[in-house]
Design goal:
The protein is built from 18 helices and no strands. It is mainly alpha-helical. It has a single domain, classed as Growth Hormone, Chain: A (Up-down Bundle), CATH 1.20.1250.
Length: 434
């Protein structure tokens, strides 16, 4: 890699060129996320219903969410590793293309009514979900600290367009699928296959030069120019930043568990109480819109108000979502829609604030690999929430699940406050020693 400083010398020497590449890379990520959002919406909207149809029982309706989040865990690790070694372009493109192949497998499983094919296909489909999240980091590689949350928010808000369109098209894609001999519930996965493959091609063709590789070259050049004392101080600072990694990961893991658990069982809850597939699609569409559309405002608030305050806000919003979902009459579209919108908003705030903490606490030497590892934990948390949600509802009720999720979200508040106090205490100790 010794040739990289020369190859990217223009970017190393010019902050103006760095900013131009940052903006161009963010635009490419935005375009790919529009397609990627449409791909991830299929599993969220009809995955549980498809599994229910094939398995013939509600008890395992959370299995699809568990499988594609479990698949996303493995994919996050692979995409992170590939990105660290070869750059974002190859890592993200490979993840999206794998997700497209998984969606094709789900289509075949639905056509053949094959549980044996459905389960591994959902695992592979999860690669697209993981990649959609991993792509948010690509926009931050060349961003300044004051731009990081905003960069994440641009990537996420662009996901809204595809993610909201996907559930709305459930009926249309279902009718098309039925017209060519597939089950209606397979229709959204047709859209997912096309969307993930297009997202991968956009990244592979246009994300050049790779922003992460350029960022690594810039970081190495700065490190070579720094005195040894400065490098030692940076190493000590990175050790302190491990606490930032821990709290950022905790915020995202807790929000993921709560969001996936309640979201997974909402379509089943609605179907049992007479709501149509179109109603389910509308509620989930609004939920996904709330997950991504507020991102621009959230990003600005995270950069201006701070990561800690917004993480606490996430816990409060998720608690409100759980309370509304628990006490809403089952036939009330309005209250279920409000509950799912709050659920998406709480997740959005938690993800952006947690992501900003992770980016703040890493450097280019290990950033992509670390981000992939943390996204594995997030995906595993989502898989646990999805798998357990069906069991909880089958043996208790949707209201119990919602209340439990809201209570779990409250853990965010003491965890973040405790971490902040601990960091302040350590900072004071450092000052007194100096």
């Amino acid at each position: 890699m010794a040739h990289e400083p020369t190859r990217f010398q223009g970017y190393i020497d010019s902050s103006e060129m760095q900013q131009k590449l940052y903006k161009r890379s963010l635009l490419i990520v935005v375009i790919s996320q529009i397609f990627g959002g449409a791909g991830l919406a299929a599993g969220v909207t009809v995955g549980a219903l498809l599994a229910q149809e094939i398995m013939g029982t509600d008890s395992f309706a959370g299995i699809p969410a568990a499988l594609f989040t479990l698949g996303s865990a493995g994919a996050a690790l692979l995409v992170g590793g590939l990105s660290q070694r070869y750059g974002r372009r190859l890592g993200i493109a490979a993840g999206f293309l794998a997700g497209g192949l998984g969606a094709i497998g789900v289509l075949l499983a639905a056509y053949l009514h094959s549980l044996v094919l459905l389960l591994p296909s959902l695992l592979i489909y999860g690669a697209g979900t993981a990649t959609n999240l991993q792509a948010r980091y690509a926009g931050t590689d060349l961003a300044s600290p004051a731009q990081r949350a905003k960069a994440v928010s641009f990537a996420m808000v662009s996901t809204t367009f595809g993610a909201v369109a996907g559930p709305i098209l459930v009926d249309v894609m279902g009718r098309y699928a039925a017209s060519i001999g597939f089950p209606a519930l397979a229709g959204p996965f047709m859209l997912a296959a096309i969307a993930f493959i297009l997202a991968g091609l956009v990244i592979f063709i246009f994300l050049r030069p790779d922003p992460f590789i350029v960022a690594k070259a810039i970081s190495r050049a700065k490190s070579d120019e720094s005195p040894s004392g400065v490098r030692a101080a940076a190493t000590k600072s990175q050790q302190t930043n491990n606490k930032g990694l821990a709290i950022g990961a905790a915020v995202m893991i807790l929000t993921q568990i709560v969001m996936v658990a309640i979201m997974t069982m909402t379509p089943i809850h609605m179907k049992h109480h007479g709501h149509s597939l179109g109603d389910v699609g509308l509620v989930i569409s609004i939920h996904i819109g709330a997950m991504y559309f507020p991102s621009l405002i959230t990003g600005m608030l995270v950069d201006k108000i701070g990561r800690t305050a917004m993480s606490i806000a996430s816990g409060g919003v998720l608690l409100a979502a759980g309370m509304v979902a628990a006490f809403a009459p089952a036939d009330s579209m309005l209250l279920l829609t409000i509950a799912l919108a709050l659920l998406g908003l709480g997740w959005n705030i938690g993800l952006i604030s947690g992501t900003a903490m992770i980016v703040d606490a890493t450097d280019t030497a290990t950033r992509a690999k670390t981000q992939g590892t943390i996204d594995v934990l997030i995906a595993l948390a989502g898989a646990s929430g999805g798998a357990l949600s069906g069991v909880v509802v089958a043996h208790s009720s949707f209201a119990t699940l919602s209340l439990a999720g809201g209570g779990l979200a409250l853990l965010l508040i003491p965890v973040v406050i405790w971490s902040r106090k601990k960091q302040k205490g350590e900072a004071s100790d450092t000052i007194s020693m100096n």
